[in-house]
Write a structure and sequence with these properties.
mainly alpha
Length: 163
Amino acid sequence: MSFTDFFSTDAGKTILTFLISMVPIFECRAAIPTGVACGLPAAVVFVVSALGNILPVPFIILFIRKIFDWLRRKNAKLEKFVARMEARAEGKAKKIRNYSAIGLILFVGVPLPGTGAWTGAFIAAMLGLKMRHALPAISLGVIIACVLVMFLSLGAKAAIQLL
């Protein structure tokens, strides 16, 4: 079976949906429409997208500061990159700092560019939030985002079928 043949199977489509949901920026905003367009059952798309989107969160919270420290030591260009990333996170963190867990849930739950599980985990790490507080809030935000994107995706698919 070739690589392209594999991704034409239901298992391949499911794995593709899962992998897309793990990619920063894409997350469930791209994974759910992809899974729906591939013809996977909505429940499978929802669960696979949510799990794939949540999977990187603990690793980001635990390791992003260590990774940034390592990048800073590598060279000046990476130091500038890290400083830019931290400045962007700090700008978004102000909103979350004011509203605590509810702010983090809403930040992750609104499926707009620049929000999502990756950014929420990054901000939680920058704010020094404990895993036991950040992970449930981010997970709930991911579920909310998945519900919103699922409704939009199923609505879009139904509209296309009517044309």
